[in-house]
Amino acid sequence: MYRYDEFDHQLVGDRVKQFRGQVERRVSGELTEDAFKPLRLMNGVYLQLHAYMLRVAIPYGTLSSKQLRMQAHIARKYDRGYGHFTTRQNIQFNWPALDKIPDLLEELATVEMHAIQTSGNCIRNVTSDQYAAAIDGEVEDPRIISEIIRQWSTFHPEFTYLPRKFKIAVTGHDNDRAAIKLHDIGIVIKQNELGDVGYEIHVGGGQGRTPFIAKKMADFVPKAQLLAYLEAVMRVYNMLGRRDNSYKARIKIMVHETGEVEMRRLIEAEFAKIDASQMLAVPQAEIDRISAYFASPEFETLPATSPALDAAKTQDADFARWVRANVVAHKQDGYAIVNISLKPIGGVPGDATDVQMEAVADLAERYSFDEIRVTHEQNLVLPHIRLDDLKTVYDALNAHELATANLGLISDTIACPGLDYCNLANARSIPLAQEISERFADLDRQYDIGELKIKISGCINACGHHHVGHIGILGVDKKGTEFYQISLGGSADENASIGTITGRAFTEETIVDAIETVVTTYTDMRQTDERFIDTFRRVGLDPFKERLYAE
Amino acid sequence: MAQHSSKGARFQAVTANRLSDGEVVYLTADNQWAETFPAADIADGPEAGDALMARALPADFELHVLEPYLFEVLQDGTDYKPASVREIIRAAGPTVRLDLGKQADAKRES
Amino acid sequence: MPNEYQLMKDGALCQDEWTYSDDETALPDAPTIISLTRLKAEAESLRARNAKLGVQLLADGNGKTKLGEDVAELEPYLDMLSLVSIAFPTYRNGRGFSAARVLREQFNFEGELRASGEVLHDQWAMMRRCGITAFELAPSVSLETFTAAMGELSNAYQPAADDQRGALWQRHK
Ligand code: HEM
Ligand code: SF4
User: Fold this and answer.
1) Given ligand 2 and candidates A416, A455, A484, which is best to mutate, with the most ligand atoms within 8 Å of its CB?
2) Domain segments of chain B: what residues?
3) Cys-Cys with A304: which of A333, B68, C83, C159 at CB 3.0–4.6 Å?
4) CA A55, A58, A62 angle in degrees (round to 5)?
5) A50–B83: do the CB atoms touch at under 8 Å?
6) Given the DSSP bridges, would you call strands A327-329 and A215-222 parallel, antiparallel or unpaired?
7) Per-residue pLDDT tens for A373-411?
8) What is the pTM of this model?
9) What ipTM was reported for this prediction?
10) What is the mean predicted confidence (pLDDT) over A290-313?
């Protein structure tokens, strides 16, 4: 894992000191709220319904056990004993007091973490694949270039007051787990025919009020030129992106209004000028220095199968189910990738208590080369577990209610905080996720339904990714009462698509029945082994619509 | 953002979040900021609402609370309650964590 | 036209030798800042002028384009210009940061680059990194505040228009 050197420490330390001064000036009355608000937002401090909220960045979703223990400590000392993992590889604390946040940030800095770039119209926390360096078939560990992008974009003097926020995601694998086509810039690491590694660049994806799938802008940007290319995209956007209407200010709108061809021309013209100076070619020695931090763990040479595991599976049916649902093949023989579901039946998606975080940290330290990953689907991952250790890890997780065997299933819902916490919400999201998971609590039924991604947002900002849910649910407000709109057929993977709205919205009382209707329509119509999304793509919206609005 | 304006509302109250910790507070009859909704001053009619809001704007409040605004309140027998789900949740706490927020404080006190 | 301001230049408060001129009035025989519209319209006669000339680049609000003026339009006139004043209509509008870097790094402009309009405390250091050397500040800002703000971040991760090279480069000489 990347470790801060003196530069990183100094920059983050300077920033904490600067924010402490700003908070003092706000509390003493020297700064008005109008002047202070942009400053607190730049440090990840929002105001929600009941309290402030602090959003802490987990760059490219990688944590050490020490870092995760610090989150537990913060939850206990500054918050109410829990944290919320978000869809952008951040963790949010819902109850910190403003005057304690500088102390909190100072403690956070001791484990090389911060809340910079989690808010405001800057380049946000770079996100990536949670299976990085553990999954087979990866071109390169995406965290190396993600770390370089993190550094290049941090406190970027030119791009901190963009027309709107800017999100970058990176994958090194053909199976996209980072939803790169729904980001302002999505980067796919590729190898060309000559064997050189470079980057395929997608620009202009996004969700919110007007969702767009990103357009491919470049097939192959050579390694040394990536930062120049990114700077070109950013500059074109900063100079020509709309600022007259915040709903039209994301780069997705610019790509849409300018057209793909013209956009590519603008970017390439700027790229030629920037690249000519060679100023942004990162020295090989620095790339090597950063790569060394992501060197492969020292895996043992193990057989590909584990008799201990097989025996445990026959003895414990629940364990066997968990292995089937939550454990993924590792690139190294004798190891596995373990997904920890933060979606217990009836629980709050993405929430973890201080004790749970510590339990996961302990397991990572003992069994997973000290690494934890967080996923955009609001779960955690232990990336490198020996097959022989799976049962021990499972038992420990189970003791902390962290062994729900529902990865990718109907109860593995993404949900934003919604009206239970969020100042912008129209409707609650979490209770709906809870009711759905309770309605479909029977795991055998869930396995029978198969892969089905439900994603819930409490308003059109789409923090809960509803546009790209196989089933998406959007909360709307009608005169102070909550309603829910359904969309179907969205997807966030390498075949990304935006869902289609079924029709009029459902009430709080009827929405779960409506979801059940969608599910039975699918199970009635599916062909052997056909996933929900494939059935939907085959039969279209109409059959679902007919059943939903039959009465 | 959810509408919490109160066009056409008869009864209204003023709420804000406290600067130091973000706690939801309500403007009381003696111009204090109280932590519980029952302590809120209730305005009857649009003019009374405007007058109530005007009391929330003096510059020194800038030192204590953020973004005060009016919201609609309904009469409930002899009592009042917030009209929208949003304001009911602000007055109580998250509906998914009954152990947190004002609802929990109230339980502890009783 | 800018509001009342004090000029902070090269790290010190100083008398502003420049004035802003509108599009109609005859220009003073002293350093003056005109609009891009006037510069384009009167370029020929302005070339003959003795006193120094500056131009203000508007980020919006000139009624013609929502986006504001394009820094590329200045390129043919740069030899006549001793100053470019980049307008920041609100602190949120960071378009001028790019204009500044393009002027310095691509057009090699060596005259004065100043920030006018709404310029917040924590933007000053970033503006300087983009090549801005003069700041039109609210009269209430003290030299101490300004100097302290400039030093709040002691290093940078990336190169820009100043002489900091950025940690990614600096770590290896
Ligand atoms: C509770 C405080 C939050 C606030 C005030 C907030 C605000 C917003 C706003 C205003 C947008 C729309 C931006 C735009 O379209 O330009 C947005 C988008 C988004 N937010 Fe949040 N959000 C919050 C929490 C979250 C959480 C908890 C998550 C993850 C679960 C999240 C993830 C996202 C994502 C993924 C998007 C979509 C990005 C896109 O438009 O491409 N946010 N948020
Ligand atoms: S989608 Fe809306 S309700 Fe949900 S977190 Fe985002 S802004 Fe809040």
Assistant:
1) A416
2) 11-109
3) A333
4) 160
5) no
6) unpaired
7) 999 999 999 999 999 999 999 999 999 999 999 999 999
8) 0.93
9) 0.94
10) 95
